[in-house]
Design a protein that fits this description.
The chain is mostly helical. The chain is elongated. α2 runs antiparallel to α3. The termini are far apart. Helix content is 78%, strand content 0%.
């Protein structure tokens, strides 16, 4: 069973879970950016932009991993 847990992150299900958690992180970054714009806080706005870039990069990496796993989903092409 420990071996299953080790390989979970490399499974399709693990990648989908990672994608979902990253998407939820995008919600908090959007809230942070909105609050920074309302407060005219440049430093928080920069932080939100950097966090958004990290989320986009993470989603791209997870998408590539999903393609590598050979997902037969029509939406992935």
């Amino acid at each position: 069973m420990a071996k299953k847990a080790k390989n979970f992150k490399k499974s399709k299900t693990g990648v989908y879970v990672s994608l979902a958690s990253t998407a939820f992180g995008a919600i908090s970054v959007a809230k942070q950016a909105k609050m920074a714009r309302n407060d005219a806080d440049t430093l928080r706005l920069i932080d939100a932009a950097v966090s958004a870039a990290a989320i986009v990069t993470g989603m791209a990496i997870l998408y590539r991993e999903l393609k590598r796993l050979g997902d037969d989903d029509v939406l992935l092409g």
